[in-house]
Amino acid sequence: MQANLDQIYKDVDFLTKINPPRNFQNMASLAAVCDYIKYEIKLAGGEPKEQTWTAQGETYTNIIVSYLPEKEEKLIVGAHYDVCGNQPGADDNASAVAGLLESIRIIFQQQPDLDYGIEFVAYCLEEPPFFGTDEMGSYIHAKSLHDANTPVIGMICFEMIGYFSDEPNSQTYPTEALAAIYPSTANFIVVVGTEKYHDFNSLVHVRMLPEARIDVQLISFPDSNNSLSALSDHHNYWRFGYPALMINDTSFIRNPHYHESTDTIDTLDFEKMTAVIDAVYNAITHLK
User: Fold this and answer.
1) Each residue's pLDDT tens digit, 10-45
2) Which of 110, 233, 256, 285 is deepest in the core (most CB within 10 A)?
3) 140, 76 in Cβ contact below 8 A?
């Protein structure tokens, strides 16, 4: 089973064409995203639910769909749908929402028999000015799991999975130590986490490798407060003691269009995105 490139392109195209952009100030645009996500979930055979909260006087929404909800233990798979400022946000984070939606489609089509349920979540308010606050959609969701004493085996966050290059020396690093260990060509995807949850990170990495059509790297940073390890929704699950990681193309370290108006659909590599989604699907269906 391979992810559908045309469908992934359709998802990214829809999200990047929303005007005004889907940032926290444009409520109608955020509502349009929610409607689209719910519609696609229903088409896939799922039953979407809304989780709402208030921030700065407005009501924001997570969209949730569960696979095998009767299972006691849960795996969480998520991605944020808002953007930073007035930009289309193709890689950040339409690529990840497309990955989330395509994972939902494949799961509900293939109907894998699992010992755990999967809760897919599309989050709002990942971007500034809410990043790092208790008003992030992922914090709201993680706290709700904790408050309900839900057994969580782990959380996987799609975060920027669309920007790649096959040009030599196209991958940069913030330190020489990292550059000495990891590839110099920007045609790989990374499982990013913290050493505290290294076992979970390694398991996801190993499960992504079989028949992967893309190089999958792994890094577990030594400190959960490390800015490079914590820059997405997964870090809110750490706050409640849940193993969590992100699947990432190295973000601003690689992509010069990060948080810029040039983060457009034509900069993405959809062939490699399908390979990432397929590798993640293999992982999320083989964690126990």
Assistant:
1) 999 999 999 999 999 999 999 999 999 999 999 999
2) 233
3) no
- Residue 222 pLDDT level (bands cut at 50, 70, 90): confident
Question: What tokens were used for 15?
Answer: 């999200």
Under a CB-based contact definition with an 8 Å cutoff, are residues 48 and 108 in contact? no
Question: What does the pLDDT look like over 43-69, one tens digit per residue?
Answer: 999 999 999 999 999 999 999 999 999
pLDDT at 173 over 70: yes
Token readout for 188 is 């790989």
The CATH architecture assigned to 5-284 reads 3-Layer(aba) Sandwich (3.40)
Q: List, in sequence order, every beta strand (DSSP E) within 68-200.
A: 74-80, 117-123, 152-159, 188-194
Residues contacting residue 28 through CB under 8 Å, at least 6 positions apart: none
| pTM for this entry | 0.97
Q: List the chain domain ranges.
A: 5-284
Tokens 């409640």 correspond to 240
